[in-house]
């Protein structure tokens, strides 16, 4: 049984100690690694990849690769990983959640498992919460990876060109936001051929602020809607209609349950405004759903609380974090 197999099988209380026990092995390589000149240090990337081709796995390379990244980080950006950061990097490589306090250098920690898994050539995704952090880390920490011979890509909402995106996803390490990575996955599932897809697969991912992305923001689904121009016209039509409706007469509101239901008088008023005989007969137009959505928008979605208007666009505000959810739309 390998060292990392024993770590994975150990109890929660022993896992940290097991990782701590590996740190001296990495530290033992510090002097030899520091003695390498730049060309020799960069050449280790090719050596690691050759060893992978010859049958070794990523776990076999962890100790040596972490020592290489630590030395490269010191030479390129003037920062050296502490022992606790080495432990954090091992935890991420093993697929665990690593909690680190502000100022403990989690951004630097990510370079360790990102480099190690990037050696496989299958791609690594580094997922963060906003465009600024993705761009910053791709430039800042990307210096280390590029210096060591790995390619680095960046995926943000501004990058809409398919060729550009395919190139970013084809990189050894790809930085991006959770929204853009998720929407690209949905777009790829709508593609008619592999040539229209951007992503190439999903091998290893590091998620920054995992509690926010996988818990808080996961409450708001990512949805791609079709026939946007037609839908927008229908939304505007119903928004104008519901402005003339009165609460308690045309509809009832239950704020606690988040429900707005039209009354019989309200349905008749809408039918008259739309010029239809029976709202519930218009199944293909989905008018009942549009009415309920418009009523909810009027009564339950409050400006500057649930959403803001920025540059003429509606941007949803997360009810739990207060952050603007870039690229999000309400599912209904």
Produce a short descriptive summary:
The protein has 332 residues and is of the alpha/beta class. Helix content is 51%, strand content 11%. It has helices at 3-9, 12-27, 30-34, 38-53, 58-76, 83-93, 106-109, 111-118, 131-140, 142-147, 162-169, 178-190, 210-216, 228-243, 264-274, 287-299, and strands at residues 124-128, 152-155, 173-177, 204-207, 251-254, 259-262, 307-310, 313-317, 324-325.
Using the alpha-carbon principal axes, give the shape: elongated
The helix tally amounts to 16
Average pLDDT works out at 86
Structural class: alpha/beta
**In the CATH classification, which architecture of the largest domain applies?**
3-Layer(aba) Sandwich
Q: Give the CATH level 1 class of the largest domain.
A: Alpha Beta
How would you describe what is shown here?
By secondary structure, this protein is of the alpha/beta class. The protein has four domains: 1-110, P-loop containing nucleotide triphosphate hydrolases (Rossmann fold, 3-Layer(aba) Sandwich); 121-219, 3-Layer(aba) Sandwich (Rossmann fold), CATH 3.40.50; 228-300, Pre-protein croslinking domain of SecA; 306-332, no CATH class. The protein contains 16 helices and nine strands. It has helices at 3-9, 12-27, 30-34, 38-53, 58-76, 83-93, 106-109, 111-118, 131-140, 142-147, 162-169, 178-190, 210-216, 228-243, 264-274, 287-299, and strands spanning 124-128, 152-155, 173-177, 204-207, 251-254, 259-262, 307-310, 313-317, 324-325. The protein has a four-stranded parallel β-sheet with strand order 2-3-1-4, sandwiched between helices. It has a three-stranded antiparallel β-sheet with strand order 7-8-9, with no helix packed on it. Helix 11 (162-169) links the parallel strand 2 and strand 3 (173-177). Helix 5 packs across helix 8 (111-118). The chain is elongated and about 85 Å long.
């Amino acid at each position: 049984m390998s060292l990392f197999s024993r770590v994975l099988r150990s109890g929660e209380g022993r896992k940290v100690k097991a990782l701590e026990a590996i740190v001296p092995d990495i530290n033992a390589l510090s002097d030899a690694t520091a003695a390498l000149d730049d060309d020799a240090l960069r050449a280790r990337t090719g050596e690691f990849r050759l060893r992978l081709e010859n049958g070794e796995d990523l776990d076999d390379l962890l100790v040596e690769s972490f020592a290489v990244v630590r030395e490269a980080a010191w030479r390129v950006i003037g920062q050296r990983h502490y022992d606790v950061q080495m432990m954090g990097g091992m935890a991420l490589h093993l697929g665990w959640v690593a909690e680190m306090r502000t100022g403990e250098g989690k951004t630097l920690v990510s370079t360790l498992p990102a480099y190690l898994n990037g050696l496989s050539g299958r791609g690594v995704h580094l997922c963060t919460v906003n465009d600024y952090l993705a761009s910053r880390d791709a430039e800042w920490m990307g210096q280390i990876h590029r210096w060591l011979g790995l390619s680095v890509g960046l995926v943000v909402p501004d990058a809409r060109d398919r060729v550009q995106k395919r190139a970013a996803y084809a990189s050894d390490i790809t930085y991006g936001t959770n929204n853009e990575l998720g929407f690209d996955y949905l777009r790829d599932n709508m593609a008619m051929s592999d040539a229209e897809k951007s992503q190439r697969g999903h091998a290893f991912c590091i998620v920054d602020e995992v509690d926010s992305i996988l818990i808080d923001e996961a409450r708001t689904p990512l949805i791609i809607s079709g026939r946007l121009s037609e839908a927008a016209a229908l939304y505007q039509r119903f928004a104008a209609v519901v402005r003339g409706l009165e609460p308690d007469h045309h509809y009832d509101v239950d704020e606690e349950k988040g429900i707005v239901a039209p009354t019989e008088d309200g349905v008749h008023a809408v039918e008259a405004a739309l010029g239809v005989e029976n709202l519930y007969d218009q199944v293909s137009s989905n008018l009942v759903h549009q009415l309920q959505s418009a009523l909810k928008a009027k009564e339950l979605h409050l400006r500057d609380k649930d959403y803001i208007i920025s540059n003429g666009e509606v941007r949803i505000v997360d009810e739990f974090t207060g952050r603007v959810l870039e690229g999000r739309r309400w599912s209904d």
